[in-house]
Amino acid sequence: MPAVRRKIAVEDWVAIAAVVALAAYLLVTVALPLWALLSKSFQNQNGAFVGLANFVRYFENPALSQSIFNSIWVSLATTAIVVPLAFMYAYGITRSCMPFKSVFRTLALIPILAPSLLPAISFIYLFGNQGIAKGILGGYSIYGPIGIVMAQVFYCFPHAVMIMITALAIADQRLYEAADSLGASRTRIFFTVTLPGAKYGLLNASFVVFTLVITDFGIPKVIGGRFNVLATDIYKQVIGQQQFEMGAVVGLILLAPAVLAFVVERLVQRKQVALLSARAVPYQPKPATTFDSVMFMFCLVVGGALAVVLGVAAWGSFIKFWPYNLSLTLDNYVFSNFDSGGWSSYWHSIEMAIWTSAVGTSVIFAGAYLIEKTRVFDALKIFTVLIATLPLAVPGLVLGLGYIFFFNHPSNPFGFLYGTMAILVLNTIAHFYTVAHITATTALKQMDAEFEAVSSSLKVPFWRTFARVTVPVCMPAILDIGIYMFVNAMTTVSAVIFLYSADTKLASIAVVNMEDAGMTAAAAAMAMMIVYTSAGARLLNVFFGQFLLKRTQAWRQR
Amino acid sequence: MSAAPKVSSARKLYLSIEGVTKTFGTFTALKDVGFDIVDGEFVCFLGPSGCGKTTLLRIVAGLESQTTGRIIQGGKDVSALPPAERDFGIVFQSYALFPNLNIADNVAYGLKSRGRPRAETDARVAELLTLVGLPDAGPKYPAQLSGGQQQRVALARALAISPGLLLLDEPLSALDARVRVRLRHEIRALQRRLGITTIMVTHDQEEALTMADRIVVMNHGSIEQIGTPMEVYRQPSSPFVADFVGSMNFIDGRMAGPGRVRLGTLEIGCAGAADGLAVGAAVKVAIRPEDVAVRGIAAGAPNSLRVKVSTLDFLGAFCRATLKPESGDTPEFVADFSINLMRDMGVGEGKDMIVALPEDRLRVFAA
């Protein structure tokens, strides 16, 4: 009997067209720019293929290859400091009965609201040439590895804490009860039950922190002094010396640890899931006065330090002339006195963040829906998912550089985007695509798999069910994606530093430029504007979210 | 083609499944499945998980496409049509009610897209909710209803568009035992009243026996037997069916002559049940525990044997007894004794008694 050829309904054609459009979108905004970067590293300035010649040139130049070593050791040092701190902090939050846990939780997440430049500026205020606590460093300069590591610790802390809280939160009470009943001491339980249970989290956090540090551009740019790292090398090669091929080579080198971290993260995630069976009883900490007090003091010191770093930048932004005249002023916020762009760069950031949030959330959520719920073109979907998970492993600088090569190419029909707001938006969406995509997919997977089957039996096209059921039910996840995109668009530096033009200069870039020109107070003020805005957006998100949830989620009440 | 018994009833043919095969890579989920369903019939696909019954249902709906074979519904070949162009309503085990829409909107979901006037839609929703016994549920949300109520709403939603075919995919499996039994009767009564052709997938043999006009027993992607509940229960056509539907003793034996079978040293008659089995062939003799006869069996009666009650399991309305034949090499078997019978006959563990394996209750299968 001949195989059955399914008739393709109008509805299926729409789904197919949408999947093709999504694949094309991801191809243009993610895959092709990365391909452009990859091929550029094997070409000379005229675009002829030269094999590994660029790589050879790179490693023959000791000034350049020294950066690899520098990058690795500051990344390792930061990881070695942040991960134990984050573990203890998360341990206090998840396993003790100390008071103010939610305050500590919020405190730990503060650095996410700020660009990485902000801790660097704070440490300059504290320990720089005019620093008020310069003496503590005992003659060592903050400009260099010391400053980089200190600022990176602040910047990476929330990422590590979030991973550790997740890892420590999923514990099986029964294991602890069993260990207790066998007479194991608290220390022994820690080393035989707690630590093995959290080892994947520790590994994962280490890789994430290492990758964040090695790919971050803002901190070494501001506080690195003459200490060269890979991230600043790319910038110097491309912007300073117009050596695009060498930039591409450094970009590829930078990609290596990130790809490794990405692979490890995937493997670890698979194992972590299997750790907790459906029958596990969630762990409930019991009060223990000494332990709880120690944990409280620890979190107080660490959380306090985070608040101080933020506070110094905030305070510094209102100071007339650090450290000689500490009277307060708003002068530093009159940005036209410091930077030709004035306040416009702040408004550009707002514009960029709103577009990124609106367009990004729509594309990513609708895309995840198409992949998860429609039943067409499965081969193309696999390819699309692969590209969608790629950006997690790609540092912003590398993606930004790829955008230059791809969109600036004379024969690219999308060339008109170069230097516009649109390219900044597309780039930022691509940069943060993966996490948002995973959030959307997770929410969609929780929906009944038969909704689409029911709709088609009722002759209702899938897009109507998408609008009437899927979107309202997934509203909490959609709001999460929206705020995630907004805050990241406000704080990002690395990808957009290659792509902005005079008309689209962003607040975070103004911070870099003003700091570069020695106007630390104005840089601090602009960085604080980003913090205020991110924090405000988060608050607004909470209130607006509650209002919206009340309207769309009434059905959740029993 | 597998045997597709023609329906004897004078009723009109509604659905034909012809030579349907489904493969996933190297795995064959359905092997050349075919049979007919008449208008207004209630058919159950019964089988263990992984037997292909759900895949077959989804192929009938168009939610899955068959590798080869045809589906003819109402005289029209729908084999290649997408679900939206077929005529069916479906109810899933998970209810799949839209959680953010109230009950009235859920039921009206398929009506609104047809652009009917609002008053007509409202009237139809009220009618359907009354039909499933939930006239006041309209303004509530699914989460505010019990599982049984939600499943009735799902049924109302499926029926709203007046489909020619109703598909039920394990609709009762997620419910409590008590609710399940009640809803069984309600669904069956509703189906009779509307006269809608219905296919239900289930792995619960009791459900299939009580609800279906005909049962299609499936295993490993093939049909084992098609028949009325009584036929499937009384004359299972294979050891699989005999074992899957109800309880069954399988006693190893050997054909001793035409219509005679030997179980150890015991020889009994099995006329009519062992056609086509050669003398000396190894067989399994099947008898249901409740068919073992006790009352009025004298020593030397046909197919009788002396047994000792070795264990008794109390199961409420009856006891399941394990009986050890006195002729040592005849295998043990179980019998169900009503509490009534136990009292009358004074049955207890260790009691010696004479029982019979009635010839007309035996099935003999090649081993």
Structure overview:
Chain A is built from 22 helices and two strands. By secondary structure, chain A is mainly α. Chain A starts with 9 loop residues before the first helix and ends in a 6-residue tail after the last helix. Chain A is globular, with a radius of gyration of 25 Å. With 367 residues, chain B is of the alpha+beta class. Chain B contains nine helices and 19 strands. The interface between A and B is large, with 37 and 40 residues.
Report the helical percentage of chain B: 10-25%
Low-confidence stretches of chain A: none
Provide mean pLDDT of chain B, rounded: 89
Count of helical stretches of chain B: 9
What characterizes the major β-sheet of chain A? 2 strands, antiparallel
- Which structural class is indicated by helix and strand composition of chain B? alpha+beta
Gap from first CA to last CA of chain A: 53 Å
Task: State the major sheet of chain B.
Answer: 6 strands, mixed
Shape of chain A: globular
**With helices defined by DSSP (H or I, 4 residues minimum), what is the helix count of chain A?**
22
Q: What global shape of chain B is seen?
A: elongated
Total count of strands of chain B: 19
Model regions low in confidence, pLDDT < 50 over at least 5 residues of chain B = 1-9
Give the helix proportion of chain A (percent range). over 70%
Largest interface: A-B, 37 and 40 residues
As laid out across the biggest beta sheet of chain B, the strand order is 6-7-8-3-9-10
Strand content of chain B: 25-35%
Topology pattern of chain B, helix = H, strand = E? EEEHEEEHHHEHEHEEHHEEEEEEEHEE
Q: Topology of this protein?
A:
The complex is a heterodimer of chains A (558) and B (367).
Chain A: H1 10-40, H2 53-60, H3 62-95, H4 101-109, H5 117-127, H6 145-169, H7 173-181, H8 186-215, H9 218-223, H10 230-240, H11 244-275, H12 289-316, E1 319-321, E2 325-328, H13 344-373, H14 378-389, H15 396-407, H16 421-431, H17 433-445, H18 451-457, H19 462-473, H20 475-491, H21 507-516, H22 520-552
Antiparallel strand pairs in A: 1-2
Helix pairs in contact in A: 1-13, 1-14, 1-15, 3-6, 3-8, 3-12, 5-6, 5-12, 5-22, 6-8, 8-11, 10-11, 11-15, 13-16, 13-17, 13-20, 13-21, 17-20, 20-22, 21-22
Chain B: E1 13-24, E2 27-38, E3 42-46, H1 53-61, E4 68-73, E5 76-77, E6 89-92, H2 103-112, H3 118-131, H4 147-159, E7 165-169, H5 177-194, E8 197-202, H6 205-211, E9 214-219, E10 222-227, H7 229-234, H8 239-244, E11 249-257, E12 260-263, E13 266-269, E14 282-287, E15 304-314, E16 318-325, E17 333-338, H9 339-345, E18 352-356, E19 363-366
Parallel strand pairs in B: 3-8, 3-9, 6-7, 7-8
Antiparallel strand pairs in B: 1-2, 1-4, 4-5, 9-10, 11-12, 11-14, 12-13, 14-19, 15-16, 15-18, 16-17
